[in-house]
Amino acid sequence: MYDVVLLTLGSERDAPGGCGSGGACCGGATEAATDPKSQPDTGQPDTGQGAQTGGDTERCATERPRVPVLACSDALIARGARVEMVTARSDAEIDAVLARLDGPARPDGLTWPDLDGKTRLVVATASDGQLRAVLRRLVRRYAPAPSRRPADLPGNRTLPDLPPVAVLPLDPARGGTHRDLAAQLGLPRDPAAVAAAVVDGTVRRLDLLRNDGGSVTLDGALLGAADDAGRPLHWRARVEVDDTVLTNGDEPLLACVVGNAGGYATLDDVTLLTAPDPTDGQIEVAVAVPVVVRSALGRKRVRLEVRRARGRAVSVLPREGKVPYLDDGVEGELTRKRSWWIEPGAWAVWSS
Fold first, then answer.
1. pTM for the structure as a whole
2. What CA–CA distance (Å, rounded) separates 333 from 235?
3. Distance CA 301, CA 121 (A)
4. Using a CB cutoff of 8 Å and minimum separation of 24, what contacts does 107-114 make?
5. What's residue 49's pLDDT?
6. Which of 234, 265, 310, 350 has the fewest CB atoms within 10 Å, measured from its CB?
7. How high is the pLDDT of residue 51?
8. Residue 62, pLDDT score
9. How far is CA 41 from CA 77, 127, 185, 213, 339, in A?
10. Among residues 207, 269, 205, 209, which one has the least CA distance to residue 241?
């Protein structure tokens, strides 16, 4: 028999203006202010992470489990699982849940996950940013400091295999070009199917992106912005993938994509990423550069040149001002160099 924790983060839909992906209960204000390892690039909170107190917490306290959560709980109980439903309103409450996934004490004193444990975790998500919030706490719990790196850690990783999680999407799959991560991975969305995956499914390991800002990326990051009329704004940055320089920062860019999965593979019908694969151990990066060309008659026109590269790490160094971005759907601004690197097969999902 499995013990299953159904973890829900406060959602913007349940408490308008209050919690979760909209910018509160697992937003970044408190953590960014208190954790020296995770200082944001902007004064705005990273709304996929952190903690919030005060009035937002009071709004969260009025939440009740959503129908998919209750349905998943019933399906798990019908399959013989012991179920506990938890609503986390802070990083500390997320961490208290994740502590149940710890393995036995190690001689080196490191906190390590128990991949064979009888406790399984279901994360009910209203956004990819909320799923990322939980994975970020898993990384912070189990990644050892460089000075304490154990001999049994794979040479191409900075953290052990993280415990698998099940994903319970709280909103219907959206059409159009942008799909949430669950849809991209082909994970079950029906609560009963999610329950079946938790109890009888298989573990599917996936690549994870870490960055030097102290966060993680599951899907990808899109750098760039548009004006009020929807026209893309030009910006400049040096973008380097391993030893390949896609742009050295002296030419305008319209967009840059750092891709693990395919959420940002296209932009306005322009293909940026050709083959994003969250299981291949590589990052795919693309930059869109406007290039002026002349026709045979001497007329000027602008075409969009897309340059791509694949590798294990990427760095983006803004050359001027702030560069807006979306990282797993969470907004931010880049004001200094940011590096992402791949952790092959570091996290995992329960799949049917």
1. 0.83
2. 13
3. 54
4. 108/148, 108/150, 110/144, 110/148, 110/150, 111/141, 111/142, 112/142, 112/160, 113/138, 113/142, 113/160, 113/161, 113/162, 113/163, 114/163
5. 35
6. 234
7. 35
8. 42
9. 44, 22, 30, 8, 13
10. 209
Contact 215, 39 (CB under 8 A): no
Which two three-digit tokens encode residue 340?
A: 């992402």
**Tokens representing 63?**
């939440």
Amino acid identity at 93? E
- Mean pLDDT of each 10-residue bin along the chain, 352 residues long: 92 37 36 39 36 37 76 98 96 97 96 94 96 97 97 96 97 67 95 97 97 96 88 93 96 96 91 95 96 70 89 96 94 96 98 92
Task: Give the pair of three-digit tokens for residue 151.
Answer: 């001999």
- Which of 181, 140, 177 lies closest to 158, judged by CA? 140
Measured distance CA(58)–CA(239) in Å, rounded: 43
